[in-house]
Design goal:
The protein is α/β, with parallel strands linked by helices and about 325 residues long. The chain folds into 2 domains: about 180 residues, Glucose-6-phosphate isomerase like protein, domain 1 (Rossmann fold, 3-Layer(aba) Sandwich); about 110 residues, CBS-domain (Roll), CATH 3.10.580.10. It is built from 15 helices and 11 strands. The strands form 3 sheets. The protein has a 5-stranded parallel β-sheet with strand order 2-1-3-4-5, sandwiched between helices. The protein has a 3-stranded mixed β-sheet with strand order 6-7-8. A 3-stranded mixed β-sheet has the order 9-10-11. Helix 2 crosses helix 8 and helix 9 packs across helix 10. The longest helix has 23 residues. The chain is elongated, with a radius of gyration of 28 Å.
């Protein structure tokens, strides 16, 4: 097969998946909202179960939920039917169970319904079979139907499993919104690897604290320029009595020169911007990065508990 033909096949498969996801968004109903609210209100755990490829998707959904503040785990339906149902709570801390089956007729999944109903557990179905046995027996049904699989024979679970995965991710995001889940909490669940290091790193660990460009309100512009140049930051920190009064950037200097042509007789207090953006030294680095991105600033001023400047954090996009 020619390379170009393969290229077109791969491109068409991706495009078809993207189109299917676009159509999936149109299938979002109040049932999706109710599912998120039910998961949020659940006093127990959210258990995900599915067979085959749906099971693999279920494992990923469970992992995403667990890492974003929802107590969750995956339960293999065949193993559950042979004893692992003992993991399911059904008392006043009852678990909610999400069953994934595109057809809604997967035998191993359907066998879980009678005991779950007997236990009194709520069931959320992610399925394309809206008139299926699973759909008829679930408390909430989430429409995961797609027109066809991208498999050339419309057999291998491809588009349908992508749809189920996206629904799981969407529910996780909705739960994060309901919980007001913050980066600090995310860091607690991700202590390892580069992601963990980034999320657990604090401003004080990365800020510049030596040779800070301090000037006084009465400092001349020549002194301001020297401070900017020696610190290699392009900013000057205007302080008085150890407290921050304002900040001057090299952009402020350029704009002033364009309109006034000279800096003679101008002092730091005349050019400084008051109330600059600051952050506490103990804040998480990820919070500082988000703040710098939102405010479109290159340098962020770090303060200690006494509100005194102790460092500068550079945006490293």
């Amino acid at each position: 097969m020619e390379t170009m033909t393969l290229h077109n096949t791969i491109k068409a498969a991706i495009t078809e998946q993207a189109n299917a996801l676009s159509n999936l968004s149109e299938q979002v109903s109040d049932e999706f909202v109710h599912a998120a609210e039910l998961m949020y209100a659940c006093k127990g755990r959210v258990i995900i179960s599915g067979m085959g490829k749906s099971g693999l998707i279920g494992k990923k959904i469970a992992a995403t939920l667990a890492s974003t503040g929802t107590r969750s785990f995956f339960m293999h339906p065949a193993e559950a039917y042979h004893g692992d149902l003992g993991m399911v709570r059904y008392d006043d801390m009852a678990d909610l169970v999400v069953l994934i089956s595109y057809s809604g007729e997967t035998d191993e999944v359907l066998k879980l319904i009678p005991p779950l109903k007997r236990f009194g557990n709520r069931i959320v179905a992610i399925t394309g079979g809206l008139d299926s046995t699973l759909a008829r027996n679930a408390n909430i049904v989430l429409d995961a139907s797609v027109d066809s699989e991208i498999c050339p024979h419309n057999l291998a679970p491809t588009t349908s499993t992508t749809a189920a995965l996206v629904i799981g991710d969407a529910l996780a995001v909705a739960l994060m919104k309901l919980r007001d889940f913050q980066p600090e909490e995310f860091a607690n669940y991700h202590p390892g690897g580069s992601l963990g290091r980034r999320l657990l790193t604090k401003v004080r660990d990365m800020m510049v604290s030596d040779n800070l460009p301090f000037v006084q309100p009465e400092s001349s512009m020549s002194s301001v320029i020297v401070a900017m140049t020696e610190s290699r930051t392009g900013v000057a920190l205007v302080t008085e009595g150890g407290l921050l009064r304002g900040v001057i950037t090299d952009g402020d200097l350029r704009r002033y020169l364009l309109s006034h042509k000279t800096l003679e007789g101008v002092f730091a207090k005349d050019l400084m911007s008051e109330n600059p953006v600051c952050i506490n030294e103990n804040a998480l680095l990820v919070k500082a990065e988000n703040l710098m991105k939102d405010k479109h600033i290159k340098w962020l001023i770090a303060l200690n508990e006494e509100e005194k400047v102790i460092g500068l954090l550079e945006w490293a996009a």
